[in-house]
Amino acid sequence: MEWRSCYLDMVLVPLGFFMSIAYHCWLWHKVRTQPFTTIIGTNASGRRFWVSAMMKDNDKKNILAVQTLRNSIMGSTLMATTSILLCAGLAAVISSTYSVKKPLSDSIFGAHGEFMVSLKYVTILCIFLFSFFCHSISIRFVNQVNILINTPQDPTSIVTPEYVSELLEKGFLLNTIGNRLFYAALPLLLWIFGPVLVFLCSVTMVPVLYNLDFVFGYRKGNKQGKADQVNGCRDCESV
Known about the structure:
Blueprint (H helix, E strand, L loop, with lengths): L1 H4 L1 H27 L5 H18 L1 H37 L19 H35 L12 H31 L3 H19 L11 H11 L4
Helix pairs in contact: 2-7, 3-4, 3-6, 4-5, 4-6, 5-6, 6-7
């Protein structure tokens, strides 16, 4: 009976994950080939211009640069703190007797065994831990940029706007990965209540992320779209 009760978990949960992974693979392909059709590619190009402008006129814009980077660090810190707090809560649940799960056993679909319950909590815990790790490393890179962006410009210096932009892109790339892992954990949280909700949440998240990740009508605004797109591919190599 335990094996039969796992059928829904074995079908719906991997199917929901496959939909999410397929969407992000397609998004990565779009960022590489048509960066200005995506928010990620457009923002990456804008950040490179921003770093160049901040370092070129650093005497007047140094405070603006530090404040902007500080806001980014605060956002990553919030996500990292949320992830590690959820990890602590899940660790407490795993070490308990799962009594919180017992009243729900008769009202949900899918497997109710101790092994499946442990698998659910451990999977969610691992994803939140990876999200925390990505946000922590992102804070490290942005902190480095926070110092280097105010470096005096010197022809012999190895700290160039291109180098600082590369560090900033690594930081934002890790921040994006951390956010996506956090989003991926949301359907898994619903796995506690059954695999049907996991599948429904995954199906709902794909169109929501699509509307957040892509720029619509970008071709109408600029006649130099093709030239910008070629340059954008170079700008987004680190994304």
